[in-house]
Specification:
alpha/beta, Rossmann fold, 8-stranded mixed sheet, 7 helices
Length: 201
């Protein structure tokens, strides 16, 4: 039986799920509440069989949904599952597919994403993982960071909700810069999700 007091979110991820794990820890294990209400990660959505995030879902006993490309880009195909589970917010955490317009319209201003650079620079199609950090270093940037933004019908384009920064040194490689960015993601994303949800209540 569902608790109507819960704020239920779904996490969309394509890879290891390290950010998903931090979000689960923040809301489930630290029991951080928003406006006095528990936030529950109620569904893990993944587009890659065997992805680490699916193992996290199993360990944490969170339902998971492995989606297929044709059905997902149909837009409305999975809305029934979201409605059945009373999902109110969608959180992208390393999810590599563009979100279809029908889903954006079904969750207006209730989908956010985290990008591992300071948008609007170094965003867009193909800008994920080490490719982002390679681009930042190649451009000679003195700093990088994370951008948490609303999701619209373009890659990395929606209104920015929050940014955090870190220095880029001459010694940095894409791998060392990735470590700095991961630290920012883990420190800020769960807290900013809580702040974002609170702004919608």
């Amino acid at each position: 039986m569902k608790n109507n007091n819960q704020i239920r979110i779904a996490i969309l991820a394509s890879g290891k799920g390290t950010n998903a794990q931090q979000i689960i820890n923040y809301f489930h294990k630290q029991e951080h509440r928003v406006a006095g209400r528990p936030v529950v990660v109620s569904l893990i959505i993944c587009n890659k069989p065997g992805a680490g995030v699916l193992e996290i879902a199993e360990i944490e006993k969170i339902p998971s949904l492995l989606i297929r490309k044709e059905e997902f880009f149909d837009g409305s195909h999975y809305l029934g599952e979201f409605t059945e589970m009373n999902i109110s917010y969608l959180v992208l955490a390393g999810f590599l597919w563009m979100i279809p317009l029908a889903l954006i319209r079904a969750f207006p201003d209730r989908i956010i994403n985290i990008h591992p650079a300071l948008l609007p620079a170094h965003g867009g199609k193909g800008m994920y993982g080490l490719a982002v950090h390679q681009a930042v270093i190649a451009a000679g940037e003195k700093e990088s960071g994370i951008s948490i933004h609303y999701v619209d019908e373009q890659y990395d384009h929606g209104q920015i909700f929050f940014q955090a920064r870190c220095p880029v040194s001459k010694e940095d490689t894409p791998e060392t810069l990735a470590q700095k960015i991961h630290a920012l993601e883990y420190a800020h994303y769960p807290e900013q999700i809580a702040r974002w949800i609170e702004s919608k209540l």
